[in-house]
Design goal:
Elements (H helix, E strand, L loop, with lengths): L1 H23 L1 H21 L3 E3 L2 E2 H31 L2 H6 L5 H31 L7 H25 L9 H15 L11 H7 L3 H13 L15 H22 L6
Antiparallel strand pairs: 1-2
Length: 264
């Protein structure tokens, strides 16, 4: 019990340091927190069409951007920053401290959670003020939103840590990770209505968590009858939860097995 308590304590302390370091990097703050808001403003201004009765493209896009934000703040950021920390010796120095791998993971997970909360609040605020986004009034929808964010953040975090061993260096990490995220965003219905994409793209996207996260978020922010516009004619929330849990478990196992403090 004492070991678990100490692991959690060190993990929380590490997360506070992670947040401080993040806030000192202006480029990261703008790209991570405000870039989705900028995209919302651009797409919401350009595409004003109604894609279904009572559903504007802006409302559809907000749901996708919240899901995509989980990938940006979790998978993309960690898969890029961890190789950089490995190259500059940060991880090697941490290895010589009482910090365990679990505490390091906890620190990263809490950082992702904090950033995701801030990013989501910004998206919902600007979406409501600028594009008249209709926020849910049903408590059950907010419950669905909560577990989607928790599962999505956890899944994105462990997958980012797992993928961080793929880039050969911190300098080239962005070139490896960013294209993958962009492709998945296009294939998963973030920038386009999912059912308007070619069938093979839909099938490919269904293999990855982002497609299911975007669909889950649409169930929160779009009218119930919009479910008939989905591929299966249903929100498939049970299937969404199952797939996210599977990816979470796989990502955690791979993270634990492959994580390295240094290249050697």
């Amino acid at each position: 019990m004492n070991t678990l308590k100490e692991t959690l304590r060190i993990g929380v302390l590490r997360s506070l340091l992670e947040v401080k370091q993040f806030m000192r990097q202006r480029e990261s703050v703008v790209f991570t927190l405000f870039f989705p808001v900028i995209l919302l403003f651009i797409f919401g201004t350009v595409f004003k069409d109604t894609i279904a009765p009572g559903v504007t493209f802006s409302q559809y896009f907000v749901a996708g951007m919240i899901a995509s934000g989980l990938v940006n703040t979790g998978f993309q950021q960690l898969a890029i920053t961890i190789p950089m920390e490995r190259d500059d010796g940060t991880l090697k120095r941490l290895r010589g401290t009482p910090m365990s791998v679990s505490s390091y993971f906890i620190g990263k997970a809490l950082l992702v959670t904090i950033l995701m909360i801030v990013q989501t609040i910004l998206l919902l605020f600007f979406g409501s003020v600028v594009f008249d986004l209709n926020l849910p009034t049903d408590p059950m929808l907010w419950w669905n939103f909560t577990w989607l964010v928790i599962l999505g953040s956890a899944c994105s975090t462990v997958l980012g840590i797992a993928f961080s061993v793929v880039p050969k260096s911190g300098r080239g990490a962005s070139a490896v990770v960013s294209p993958i995220v962009i492709i998945l965003q296009f294939f998963s219905g973030v920038f386009f209505v999912f059912t308007s994409l070619p069938v093979w793209m839909q099938q490919f996207a269904a293999l990855f968590p982002l497609k299911w996260l975007t669909q889950g978020m649409r169930s929160v922010f779009l009218p119930e009858d919009f479910a008939t516009q989905e591929v299966a004619g249903d929100w498939e929330l049970g299937k969404t939860a199952l797939i996210l849990i599977i990816w979470l478990v796989l990502g955690l196992l791979v993270s634990i097995k492959t994580f390295k403090w240094s290249r050697q």
